[in-house]
Each structure stands twice: as structure tokens, then as C-alpha cells.
Amino acid sequence: MNCGIFECINILLISACAVVSATRQYHMLQQNSYFISRYFGWLRTSGDAFLWGCMIVDVFVKALLVFIPGIHPAFLTGYCAFSLFVLVVHTRSVQKKAIKKLVVTARVKRMYLTASLLCLLAGAATLLFDTVWVYFMVLLLIFSFSPILSVLSVVVNEPIEKSVRTYYINDAKKKLRSMNNLTVFGVTGSYGKTSSKYVLERILSEKYNVCMTPGNLNTPLGVVRTIRKNLTPECNVFICEMGAKNIGDIKEICDIVHPDLGIITSVGPQHLSTFKTVENVAATKFELADAVVESGGKVFLNSDSKPIEERASSYASITYGVESKADVRAENITCSREGSSFDVFIGERSFRVSTKLLGKHNVLNVLGAVAAADYMGVSDDRIKFALSRLVPIEHRLQLKPFLNGSVLIDDAYNSNPEGSKEAVSVLGSFEGMQKIIVTPGMVELGEKEYSENYDLGLKIADVCDRVLLVGEKRAVPFVDALTASGYDMSKVTVCPSFKDAMKVLSVECSRDTAVLFENDLPDNYAG
Questions:
Q1: What residue numbers bound the domain in which 37 lies?
Q2: Which distant-in-sequence residues (6+ apart) come within 8 Å of 211 by Cβ?
């Protein structure tokens, strides 16, 4: 095969196609925390139908343009240019519609660079062979199997990523060691950890200079990034949210920050697709307690959570709860659409607090923060003042004005069995209004996913006047529950996406409507 200018252009164009098509793969790799096994799980169950269709057509057209005698290489060049245009348009469209877009981090940039080099090297290698078969097979492999290219770029880069992680982690550890007067607070739990963190930060700020991990940033590298960028010498308290999807994840973060104190907010059936059992969840959350005890500190435990209560006696702990005989407890609770009020009992003393946070589950989040703040020497008056100034965290039972004068209860952050039912109860407090729920249900509950969503469906049947379910597959347990409860199924609509649900809401919402957004799944769970 005599390779000329057209063959070289074809190699460049097909390499560009491969790199552009890798965008979708990198997007899903990022949403699956760069775990290749999880990414393959998404690829197996979801994938991108348009991209797979393009691959099949691409193989067929390339075969025609390469193997039919007498066809000039310029025809393949034109086809490759057209393919690149279609891919760019499609990729931009997918990213624009994505719930959570690809974040082009330094790691993603390195993956793009590696993919480009792999493509160019493979393409250049074809120029060494005087055979059309080699040329075609390389073209086929470069573009038509972009998932393989994407995974290859991750694997090739792993030694680099490992060295980068090690450098950043050691730098964060060095910074923490230099701050002798810093108190490190770890916060973890199956749910409630982000809300508890924000409440704790607001109360402790009445007395201390506090730094915390922002948003729901709770991975080792997220914690390291916060330490390196946000933690200043003036800070005397660092609140570190700790997330986990596998045994050992909490310990990994603890080995970086060495927490002095900790809160375990809950243990429940969350991330069971990786944890497999609630027992494994509990063992992982208590990796924080083990680290705190090792440092000689105290751990604050939600004793209303049975898996936590069973382990509490083994640790130097202060318990909090509503239903249990805890060291710090709440009584005389009143909850409405305006917020929550209750009496806090700490030993022999008590005081009443009020907060704009909605839902009884937020009472527990407040109690954990109050117990910790009291231990840290914050006065009752300052605690009461801080709680009165709290505002709901974004996407966590947050009240907002909505379409056509209606009210939106935005609980779109990842849902859990306890919180989702409480959110429906909050919707039920809007008496005299049409109550609509929009939900795709809960995920990462393993074998319990169907039953937990079914139970939520039964709760919805008791409260909601209108139900919008997002995703045909995800709607199954809700449809089953609503049908079994005798719900009027003419009031149920299954929408392909949130965008379609919004179209329904734009017609049906009015000033006497309350809408609950319960969970908003990332793109790797769509469908």
C-alpha cells in the first residue's frame, strides 16, 4: 500500500474522531470515580445507543471505501471529515443535556493527551505496512472501539496518577502536621453527613475559625484538595466530610487527616451495590470511630440508628437521638413547612431551638452538631442563635418559588430510604394544595433497591395527588406499589427525562401547587 497525503489525513481525522468519541466514555468514567469495573457496568446496562450505531455504520462504510477496487482515498477522507463533524455535534449535545457535565480536570486532560498519542502512534504504525488489511484494521480499532481506547488511556496513565496522588496527599499531610492548634472533625454516615457538617460549621463558627470540605466533596483527593487550597493558618477547626463506597474508604481519609473528633450520623442500606451488606456499611463508618479513639478523642453517635447503637458502648462516645435514651436528645418536636422547633436536653439542662430546616430527620442532624458544639464549649445562647440563622442546604429540602406561582421543595440531592419518606411527609404538610412528586427513585441499594422504592411508592400513594416518574425502567417498583395501593393510575405519568417532566409541570402547576423533586440521578443511572 503506497501511503500518500490522503492516507496521512485519514489517520489524523480518525484519530480526532476517536478522541472526540472518548468524551462520553470519560464522562461516565468520571461519574463512576474512574473505577473501570463500575464503568463496564454502565457500558453493559446503558451505554450510548447513538455511538454504538455510529460504530456499526462506520465499520461498514470504511470497509466499502477501503476494499472496493478503484475508490480513491479522498472518498474515505471526506467520510472521515463528515464523521468528525457528526461526532462533535453529538458530543456537544450530550454534554449540554447532561445532568452533571464532564469536569475537564488535569486528570481528564492527561487522558485526552494519552488517547491522542495512542491513536497517532497506531495510525503511524500502519504507514510501515504495505497492506490494506493492516490499514483497515487499525482504522477500525482506533475509532470503532472507543471504550477500549478510553480504558487504555486510564490504564496507561495509572502510574502517573498514582504518583500525582501520592504527592498531593503527602503535601496535605505536611500542612496538617504544621498546624499544631488545629482540631480535625470527621463527619460520616450513610446519609445526613453533609447536612450535619453544614450545621456543625455554622454553630462552631460562633466561637472558632472553621474550614470545612465544601459541598459534598468527601473523597480522599477532595479532602486533600480542600486542605491544600482552603485551609489557612488562622483556622483552628477543620471539618472533614468522609464518604465511602467500599470497605477501607473511611480509613484511607482518616490516615490522611487523623481526626480528633467525629460524628457518625447514620448506618443504612446505602451503596449496597458495592458494600453488599449493611454490616459492611457499619464497619466502614466505624473506621472513623476507630481513628478518633486512637487519637484519644470523642465520637458522637446517632443512637436512633440501631447499627450505631449496637456499637456505641465499645467507644468513648456521646450519643444523641430522638427515640433513644441518648446523652443529647430532643423532645416536644414541632415540624411544619416553616421549619422545626424542639427542646434540646443535655444532661440536666435544656433549651428550646428553632430552625428553618425542614423535616424530622434534620432534627437528628441538628442534634449531632449541637452535641459536638457543646463538647467544644459553644454556649447555649450561641447555639440557639446559630440554629435560628441556618438556611436549608441547596437541593436538600430547599423551598423555592416555582412555575406559575407554585412552590418547589427541592430535595434533588441523592435520595435515601429514610430521607425520601421524610421528604414526602414534608410535602404532605402543605395542606390545601395540590401535591406533586417528581422522582426517578433511589439507586445503589443493591438487592434492596426494588423493595425500598416500592415502600416509597406506598408512602407516595398516601400523600401525593399527582406522580411523575422519571425513567421507564426506574418507574417499575413505583408503578407496582401505586397499583397495589389502589391509586388512580390516571394520575401517574412516566417521563423519559426530567426535561419531559418539566413540560408536564409547566401545564399543571398553579399557585395552589406544591412540587417535590426527590432525587436527581447522575447520567450513569439515567434510564
A1: 5-159
A2: 226, 230, 231, 232, 235, 237, 238, 239
